[in-house]
Amino acid sequence: MFDRRRFSVRLAFAALACCFSADVALAQTYPTRPIRLIVGYAPGGINDQMARIIAEIMGKELGQQIVIENKPGAGTAVASTFVAQSDPDGYTVLLGTVSLAINPALSPKLTPKNPLTELMPVGLALQSPFYLILAKSLPINTVGELIAYAKANPGKLNIGSAGNGSSSHLVLELFNNRADTKMTHLPYRGAAPMVLDIIAGRLDGAFATPVDASPALEGGGGKAIAVSSLEPISLRPDLPPVAKTLPDFKGVFWAGLFVAPQTPAPIVAILSKALATATADPALKAKAAERGVTMLTGGPDALRDLLTSETEIWGKLIRDANIRGE
Q: H/E/C letters for each residue in 198-211?
């Protein structure tokens, strides 16, 4: 007697087996042509620089060239949307950053609306802390002194950021929230003009990446008093973490690689392995350290966990502080 239900189950298993076999066969030949690495920032910046170094090492590991394509715009949403909507074949990869955790709450109209489901994690790449820098003329040299001064003079200190809703802005808001201070936020169009105003004494301070902060520190117009990572960094081991004064304080810029959803698991595994080889490369780690960047090693699960936790942290802060995107 014909059992329709048993036949349907067998048919489903056969289809799954067929798909699995196809994925395995595809992975055995992948990659057969150059891979595109999509970067949501303009050429020349630290993200572009690091992407090119990572791509060179990964390309050697994979036996194919990895070509950088810069697609800046809309807080990196142009780049992430492009990859989210690309063919799930592993030939279009995104350098996704902390903006993926920020944009859903900051600018809900931007796509992808839910990066946790609309992109597939490949692995961790890097992180960069922010220096807490102040104008050299300010009589403040520690985080404790800054908090005391800000509480005694609410709203008097003007602290810049690279733009409204940028990661440097959110780290400032996190600091105000944790320290119970009211420093005034002044958004700039990028980090360069912000740092120039610190040098000129027109701005009291900012959270800036080591690369962005270097003109103020080298020129003598600014001073760094702390770092926003949980631990000191090798570039400036003398700088104490903000967390030394505000326990567990952490606000860093991070990046990882993503591909389109439904990309076959064997291909994701190949990309993840090549990325791990690159981020563990001693020469790459040394070049990164010179820029205040720390290379990270972790596969798809580690990147998914990071994106999940960061989305919760920054989303809550954005909603509580009523921050809106530009």
A: HHCCCCCEEEECHH
Peptide bond into 241 cis (omega under 30): no
* Residue 153, phi then psi, degrees to nearest 5: -130, 65
Do 135 and 124 belong to one domain?
Answer: no
CA–CA dist 9, 64 (Å, integer): 41
Q: Do 306 and 228 lie in a common domain? A: no
Helix ranges (DSSP H) in the chain: 4-29, 46-62, 77-84, 99-106, 115-118, 143-152, 167-179, 191-199, 210-219, 265-279, 282-290, 300-320
Stretches in the chain below the pLDDT threshold 50: 2, 7, 9, 13
Measured CA to CA in angstroms, residue 203 lies from 101, 189, 192, 209 at distances of 28, 14, 13, 17
Q: How far is CA 134 from CA 41, 116, 172, 242, 261, in A?
A: 27, 36, 13, 14, 43
Task: Provide the pLDDT for residue 28.
Answer: 79
Number of domains in the chain: 2
Q: Is the Cα dihedral 82, 83, 85, 87 positive or negative?
A: positive
Longest dimension (CA), the chain: 91
Q: List the CATH number of the domain containing 227.
A: 3.40.190.10
Q: Is 153 helix (H, G, I), strand (E, B) or coil?
A: coil
Q: How far apart are CA 213 and CA 185, in angstroms?
A: 17
pLDDT for position 238: 95
Total Cβ atoms within 10 A of residue 316: 12
At 2 the pLDDT is 45
Q: What is the C-alpha separation between 159 and 167, in angstroms, rounded?
A: 14
Which H or E run includes 117?
Answer: helix 115-118
* Residue 61, domain extent: 31-128+253-320
The Cα–Cα gap between 69 and 92 comes to 10
> What are the tokens at 75?
């807080």
- For 103, other C-beta atoms within 10 Å of its C-beta total 27
Identify whether residues 222 and 137 lie together within a single domain.
Answer: yes
